[in-house]
Amino acid sequence: xxxxxxxxxxxxxxxxxxxxxxxxxxxxxxxxxxxxxxxxxxxxxxxxxxxxxxxxxxxxxxxxxxxxxxxxxxxxxxxxxxxxxxxxxxxxxxxxxxxxxxxxx
Length: 105
Prior knowledge:
Residues 1-31 are annotated as: Disordered. This protein is mainly alpha-helical and 105 residues long.
C-alpha cells in the first residue's frame, strides 16, 4: 500500500480562525489574567507572612544560591564516581560502599 505524499496534512494545532470566537478567546484570556492576579496576591500575602515571622527575601535568595552551588558540586562528585567506576570496572554502587557513602545521598 502506497500513501499519497501530497495528501492534505491536518495539523493538531488549531489556527486562530478555527478556534472559538473572538469573544470566547478574549474571555478565556481575561479569566487567565484574573487567575494569575489571584495567585500573585496569594504569593504576596505568603511573602508578607514569612517576613512578619522574621524571614527575609535576601536570606531566601542566599539559600537558593547555596543550594544551586551544592547541587553543582554534587553533580561533579557523581561524575567523578562514575568515571572512577568505569576505570576500576565496578559499579558506582560498589564505590558508594567502599567510600562509606549512603546511596540515598
